[in-house]
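note to self: dont lose this again. the chain is below, predicted strucutre after it. 318 aa total, dont forget to put it in the shared folder this time
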Amino acid sequence: MYRGVRIAAVVPAYKEERHIAQVIETMPDFVDHIVIVDDCSPDQTSAAAEATGDPRLRLIRHEANQGVGGAILTAHRAALELGSEINVVMAGDAQMDPDFLPQLLDPVVDGYGFAKANRFFSGESFAGMPGYRIFGNIVLSFMTKFASGYWHIFDPQNGYTAIRAEVLRRLPLNKIAVSYSFENDLLINLNILDVPITDVPIPAVYGNEVSSIKLSRVIPELLSLLFGGYWRRVWWKYMVWSFSPVALLLLAGLALIVLGVAVGLWVLANSIGSPTAGSVMLAVVPFVLGVQMLLVSLQLDIQGSPNVATMHKLGDGH
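---
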């Protein structure tokens, strides 16, 4: 146990026969359960895990590949059955340094519902990270901030995370994306539930692994999920559960912008010579008002980002 709390490490693994034993053998003693999910690996990942003989190990093998998100969700469910109170996700390729596990667990033990590593807190964090990854993470971080509503977090694709068991029980686990966009969709669902989260400065460990991610498939998937996730969050959080000014300003602002653009196009199409000042105002005024409403809506959304002050909601339902 860690500070009196039962800890489970959940480890998704796919073709990790060279690294999985290192992950298990370097797991700190305070971790009570190690749940390995072999996501239908074609190699000897399962055999390598079993060979460690660690009594804390529970090994699960998928009969069909479900993706990293699917493996993590399977492991979370199994850890809950084992009675875990906090689950921490660690990669099967040993790229998550177990020495930083206490720093990740402390804020969750102290009240946060979710904590994740952030590789971008200091200049040293960039060491060893390829340039295209840095650029991609910056762009994706901003887009995820907007979609998830967690404006104070960064590095959303970092999978080194810790989460409370009661938060997991409230999440719609069967509806969360199971592919590369798992972390982004998880953040959106956490914000809908008003779960306070925090970033923890933890550098990544880069080895000889070669990414198998196909950007031509992943990028459209991420864009689609973030766009849909934003509107899903607005619908549930700001309209269904409480019709807040965020939704009112957002919808009114969009309507005024559309009206302004439509009137402007009509004025241009029907004016002979130069349009009159009055007709121009009919287009400009609603457009400017609409933009201002969207900015105020965004400001209110940023101010409403869940923090540790909302942790009393963790045990509440909606």
